[in-house]
Amino acid sequence: MITIKDIERAKSLIGDQLIKTPCTYSTTLSEHTQCSVYLKLENLQFTGAYKIRGALNRLMNLSQKEKDNGVIASSAGNHAQGVALAAKKLGIKATIVMPETTPLSKIQGTKKFGAQVILHGNFYDDAYQKAQEIQKENGYTFIHPFNDNDIIAGQGTIGLEIHESLPDLDIVIVPIGGGGLISGISVALKTLNPNIKIIGVEAQQMAAMKSSLEAKKIVEVPKAKTIADGIAVTTVKENTFEIVSKYVDEVVTVTEAEMAQSIMMLLEVEKILVEGAGAAAFAALSHGKISGIKGKKVGIVISGGNIDVNFLSRVIERGLSEDGRLTTLRIYVPDTPGIISDISRVVSEHGANIIDIHHNRTYTTTLLGHTTVDFTLETKGHTHIKEIKTAIKTLGLEVTTN
Asked: Considering 11, 40, 51, 190, which one is annotated as catalytic?
């Protein structure tokens, strides 16, 4: 198990190669959550995520022969870019295997640093197996994304920076995938302040660490789709499981909708662009997953901001829908002139904005002479939506939320 001396050594080795990212206080988020919220903005790090820390520390500790032979890694994106940039800085050949479902922005970001990118499978574990095969064939050194002491120590430098900026924090909330990030941070912070509470957050869809802690042994969880691709792993490993078991106080999970809403809130309120995994820690705080926070000083690790722009638009739409600011009403109407005008008038009178109107005359189960019409509206919340539905029903029409 690593110690704080390993983390301090990593800091001395890689510190001048990094951005010391800020821990910013948020007045609005503090009022929203009834605690003092500080955001550790690793989305502002080189490559847009914290992974460069561990990658640099690992590659700088390679032997000359290992550097000459080259390295290989498997990653859903952020580790890939971290290894690619570290390899470029040190003049090392890098090959990265990424799932075919990896966001385009992360693939392009990895190629930009000169690494060879191979796309394979739909999940991280598929890419991992392929990378292992290529490593054996070519004699590369495999750079594991989390089950490696040098990687963990590099990520732990975040903990040192948090303590330097905010030595009196009560709680720090950290996203968990394989557990390398929270392992390094928890060793650093618990050593410097044994009273601090460390909370881990996983995507509910793939909660490998939480499931393993509950079983008191490492277990594998089923593969599943999640917007938090950066923390989507089916199984954790020995190093991180041991450290998390010892140092982390609690692990909670968040849903897809909660992460989507948090991405939107951080963008709208704080002007911070984050990916799904980067929003997970804040989602846990914002949606009441952590008890005993009122009046506390809470640090949130925003682990990354590498989100595909096309995907971001869909996330925002999902977040707006969850927030009641975007909705689709399905209305069953007689197919007669003027009915759309009547509905539009009611919507206008209630201050909603019509985004789209869609008729469905052919593929419908309504009686002949009737049709369904979908109105997509910009609204002001769930209460506003109920008011509009009630008003439309006064026209003698049936309406549901689609």
From this structure: 51
pLDDT of residue 159: 98
User: What type of residue sits at position 342?
Assistant: D
Per-residue pLDDT at 368: 67
Residue type for position 161:
E
> Helix, strand, or coil here: 331?
strand
Active-site residue, 294 included = no
Picking from 232, 306, 314, 317, the residue whose alpha carbon sits closest to that of residue 273 is 306
29 touches 210 (CB < 8 A) = no
Chain-centroid distance of CA 37 in Å reads: 18
| Beta strand extents in 50-144 (DSSP E only) | 71-74, 94-98, 116-119, 141-142
Q: Could you read off the pLDDT of 109-119 as tens digits, one per residue?
A: 899 999 999 99
- Residue 334 CA, distance from chain mean position: 46
- Which two tokens mark 397? 């029409």
All residues at 6 or more sequence positions from 368 whose CB lies less than 8 Å from its CB, including other chains: none
Tell whether the model's pLDDT for residue 362 goes beyond 70: no
CB 199 within 8 A of CB 192: no
Dihedral in degrees, nearest 10, Cα atoms 212, 215, 219, 225: -60
Task: State mean pLDDT over 354-378.
Answer: 81
Residue 125: per-residue pLDDT: 79
Query: Does 303 qualify as catalytic in the annotation?
Result: yes
Residues in the chain: 402
At residue 169, what is the residue type? L
- Strands 370-378 and 326-334 turn out to be antiparallel
Instruction: Give the whole-angstrom CA distance, residue 184 versus residue 163.
Output: 13
What is the structure's pLDDT at 364?
63
Question: Would you place residue 363 in the very low, low, confident or very high pLDDT band (cuts 50, 70, 90)?
Answer: low
Determine the Cα–Cα distance for residues 238 and 250; give it in Å rounded to an integer. 18
pLDDT band at 365, cuts 50/70/90? low
Alpha-carbon span 395 to 243, nearest angstrom: 63
Candidate list 74, 75, 183, 303, residue with the active-site label: 303
CB 180 within 8 A of CB 233: no
Dmax of the chain from CA atoms? 80
The mean per-residue pLDDT over the stretch 112-130 comes to 91
Query: Which pLDDT score is estimated for 103?
Result: 77
pLDDT of 105 reads 77
CA angle 71/101/262 to nearest 5° reads 105
